[in-house]
Amino acid sequence: MDAPSARDALPDEASCPICLEYFRDPVSIHCGHHFCRSCIERCWEWPTAGFPCPRCRDTAAERSLRPSRELARVLEIARRLSRGEALGTGEEEKEGCQRHREPLEVFCKEDGALLCAICRESRVHRAHTVLPVPEVVREYQGRIQAWLQTLKDDRDKIQELREAEMRRSWECLEKTEVERQRILSQFHGLRLSLEEHSRHLLARLGDLERDVGKVQEENVTSLTKEMSRLDARIQELEEKCRQPDRTFLQVTRDNGMEPPGPAGLGKENLQLPPSPLPELEKKIHHFREQNSLLEETLRSFQDILMFELPEKMTVTLDPSTAHPQLLVAPDGSSVTLPGTDPAPTLPGTDPAGPGTDSPGDGPGTDPSVLGREGVTAGRRCWDVQVAPAGSWALGVSRETPGSGGETPGSAERELWSMGLCQGQFWALTSLERIPLFPIRAPRRVRVALDYERGQVAFFDADKRSLIFAFPAASFKGQSVHPWFLVWGEGSRI
């Protein structure tokens, strides 16, 4: 089918009954007829008794516009077919407008369409902004060129930024690699130094062991010889004592021995060699004194590692786990016990007296609160600011498997904590309390937790000195939460 027959084959329904042109954004109304959306909206612009159809005059009480997507697709195919015929035959430049066969000389900016002079004067485009095609082309080309230049400038900026970011990333990677090599080198050197010092100390201990063995052998040999001499002398005297009286006395005189009697006995001088062990014991004691400084240095180094290595975390108090008497700040940063309270006792001990609501009434009645954040792996630490007055305790808590409670804080929990009670510092667990040596009350306490090793340590955060560290425990794969207790007047954490 040639191009004119293809155009003639398009149905009349492809044109809007109002503007008599191809549908633009076609919609159907209550009666089923189709119109351009803008055309039917202009017809219904003024209020009337109803909404009549411009074609069949059927009136509806309510406005109803339904998009006709199928018709829109058909119209798009028709427009493409028309453009293809014009381009293929070269008739577009000659015939121009497909409806009026006039040259397309102007461009409607509102509709984005090329128009002929007749279309320009039509009712549809009369109020629109219409410009000559070359002018519009120059305007749009200028806009596109400006847009292209802006895009190119943005692309160049992004490229420069990308290159700069890549350089910075490589520099960061190089710095991290330098740090990695530096750490490896330092620890490798430290390990070699410690191994060398360890070999030196073990060699000195080996020399002491050889000295002890040599002295022991010489001493035992000397004592054995003296024992043999004494055994021979004992045997000789025993044989003389078994001789007859006349022979015994004769042999005694012939040998120049004095007559038997108290005065003639005890003439043997016992020759004992001097013992070298006191001197060796002095050497061992001197060796221990020399290494005490090294032991203190290594212990201090381990304390520094426990203080510095854990990742610092922010702890927020959980009001749902707080004792009813406690006052938790809205942001979960502090907890106090308002009012004047009875004399404090340690968690888990006997109550202060009958009818006294003290921490000793049981694990569930201690005025404590938990942190929201739980730890299930790795190394973590957090700093706690404590009041110089009152009594307090802090540490970590693990809920005992199978425990539970109907009220907050009533569950059975296993504790690892330290605190101040009536001027005495204690290390506290669920089963025991350990008095700590007199220490100066810290302003900030750092709690360091190593989950895998099961270690809980407490430091004076300002002095970076260890207060107390619990032996390795097992958290049994359960979540461990920060735990805090305040008790007594002026207590605040």
Automatic annotation (TrEMBL):
Residues annotated as domain RING-type: 16-57
Pfam families: SPRY, zf-B_box, zf-C3HC4_4
Keywords tagged on the record: Ligase, Metal-binding, Zinc, Zinc-finger
Domain (B box-type): residue spans on this chain: 92-133
InterPro entries per UniProt: B30.2/SPRY, B30.2/SPRY_sf, Butyrophylin_SPRY, ConA-like_dom_sf, SPRY_dom, TRIM/RBCC, Znf_B-box, Znf_RING
Ranges of biased composition (kind: Low complexity): 336-368
Region (Disordered): 252-274, 324-372
Any one GO molecular function term: zinc ion binding
Protein name according to UniProt: TRIM7 ligase
Superkingdom per UniProt: Eukaryota
Domain B30.2/SPRY: 294-493
